[in-house]
Design goal:
Blueprint: E1 4-8, H1 12-24, E2 28-32, H2 35-39, E3 49-53, H3 61-69, E4 79-83, H4 88-97, E5 101-104, H5 109-119
Parallel strand pairs: 1-2, 1-3, 3-4, 4-5
């Protein structure tokens, strides 16, 4: 059974590129354009990892992480934040919200794939 990844980003081009790359690595990929729409996928299905952008309309990545951590089934699901931020305050806010880790944009797809594979072993 393929591991399922939820990838959340408001950029359609990033979503499509990452969906393609992740599916080529053998993952099942669900994509969403913002935090509110992403929350609809937390309906009891098995999600191996969530990769979310920080800045998005409707609900940003940190608020999405906070909401996911409130759902018992997903409290231990790895949550990876993609961000252009290098400010320690934002990184600490994400960590306090429940982020497992973060990758600074721009990023190499290979680095993201390696990180995902390590987190969902």
């Amino acid at each position: 059974m393929k591991k399922k990844i939820l990838f959340v980003d408001d950029s359609i081009s990033i979503r499509e590129v990452m969906k393609y790359n992740l599916e080529n690595e053998g993952f099942e990929v669900i994509i969403s354009d913002n935090g509110i729409n992403a929350l609809k996928h937390f309906d009891g299905q098995d999600i191996a990892i969530v990769v979310t952008d920080l800045y998005m309309p409707e609900m940003d990545g940190i608020e999405l992480i906070r909401n996911i951590r409130k759902i018992e089934k997903y409290q231990k699901t790895p949550l990876l934040l993609l961000t252009t931020e290098t400010q320690i305050e934002k990184i600490m806010e994400a960590k306090a919200a429940g982020a497992t880790g973060w990758i600074v944009k721009p990023f190499l797809s290979a680095r993201l794939l390696d990180t995902i594979k390590k987190l969902i072993k």
